[in-house]
C-alpha cells in the first residue's frame, strides 16, 4: 500500500531563483535591427510543477540603426522589471511515474504573460539634436510600461529522490511597450512611419535552482 501511495503523487519544490543571458532585438522607429547582449534574474513560486508566478529583472542594451557612416541609430542601456505567470503543457497532460526525456521536454513547454516597467537610458543617438522639424526627439531617460509575452521550455534535472533541483530554461520573450522611449525618437517619419508601439525581443538561456517547501501533485 505504501508503494502505491508513493506512486500516486509527485513532489516538487515550490520556490526557485535563477538567471541567464541572451540577446535583445529592438523594433522601433528605425528600419534596421541588430542584436545586443542582455542578462536576467528571476524568482518564482510554483503552485504545481507546471504553473508558477514570478518576477524578473533585466539589464542590457537595445540598439538599432547603422553606426558605420553617421546614419540614424540609437543605443539604449536599459533596465527592466516585470511580474508574470506561466503555464506549461504538463498542466494539461496525464503524468506517468517514469517520464521519458522527450515527455519531460514536451511537458516543460510553456507560455506566459505579465506586466512590467522599462527604464530607458539612451546613451548614444544620431541625429543627436533636432536638426529637422519632422523629427521629434524623445527623452534620453524615460519610463515605459510594457507587457512581456513568453514562450519557452523548462527541463528539470532530477535528484536521486526524484525531486527536480536544477532546471535548464530556454525562453523567447516579446515585449510590447506602452510608450516611445525605447528608441529615443518620439516621431521619426524620415526613417519609418510611426504607426505602432516600440517592441523588443529577448532570447535567452539560463538555469534555475529550486528549493524551499515541498508541494504534492496527485498523478
What is the CA-based Rg, rounded? Answer: 21 Å
What is the count of helical runs?
2
Distance between the termini: 16 Å
Class derived from helix and strand content: mainly beta
In which range does the helix fraction lie?
under 10%
Rounded mean pLDDT score: 84
Describe this structure in words.
- With 219 residues, this protein is mostly beta strands.
- It has an eight-stranded antiparallel barrel with strand order 1-2-3-4-5-7-8-10.
- β1 and β2 form a beta hairpin.
- It is elongated, with a radius of gyration of 21 Å.
- The N terminus is likely disordered.
Topology:
Elements: H1 2-7, E1 9-27, E2 35-48, E3 51-65, E4 73-88, H2 101-107, E5 109-126, E6 136-137, E7 141-158, E8 164-177, E9 185-187, E10 199-218
Which structural traits does this protein have?
single chain, mainly beta, 8-stranded antiparallel beta barrel, disordered N terminus
What's a quick, concise take on this entry?
The chain is mainly β and about 220 residues long. Helices cover about 5% and strands about 65% of the residues.
Amino acid at each position: 500500500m505504501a508503494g502505491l501511495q508513493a506512486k500516486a503523487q509527485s513532489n516538487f519544490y515550490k520556490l526557485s531563483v535563477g538567471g541567464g543571458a541572451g540577446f535583445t532585438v529592438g523594433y522601433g522607429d528605425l528600419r534596421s535591427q541588430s542584436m545586443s547582449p542582455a542578462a536576467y534574474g528571476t524568482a518564482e513560486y510554483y503552485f504545481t510543477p507546471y504553473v508558477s508566478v514570478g518576477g524578473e529583472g533585466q539589464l542590457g542594451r537595445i540598439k538599432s540603426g547603422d553606426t558605420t557612416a553617421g546614419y540614424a541609430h540609437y543605443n539604449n542601456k536599459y533596465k527592466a522589471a516585470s511580474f508574470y505567470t506561466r503555464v506549461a503543457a504538463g498542466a494539461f497532460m496525464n503524468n506517468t511515474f517514469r517520464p521519458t526525456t522527450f515527455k519531460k521536454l514536451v511537458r516543460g513547454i510553456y507560455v506566459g504573460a505579465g506586466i512590467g516597467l522599462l527604464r530607458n537610458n539612451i546613451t548614444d543617438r544620431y541625429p543627436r539634436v533636432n536638426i529637422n522639424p519632422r523629427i521629434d526627439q524623445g527623452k534620453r531617460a524615460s519610463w515605459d510600461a510594457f507587457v512581456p509575452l513568453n514562450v519557452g521550455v523548462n527541463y528539470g534535472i532530477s535528484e536521486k529522490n526524484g525531486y527536480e533541483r536544477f532546471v535548464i530554461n530556454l525562453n523567447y520573450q516579446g515585449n510590447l511597450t506602452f510608450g516611445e522611449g525605447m528608441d529615443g525618437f518620439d516621431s521619426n517619419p524620415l526613417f519609418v512611419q510611426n504607426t505602432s508601439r516600440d517592441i523588443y525581443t529577448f532570447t535567452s538561456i539560463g538555469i534555475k535552482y529550486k528549493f524551499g517547501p515541498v508541494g504534492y501533485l496527485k498523478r
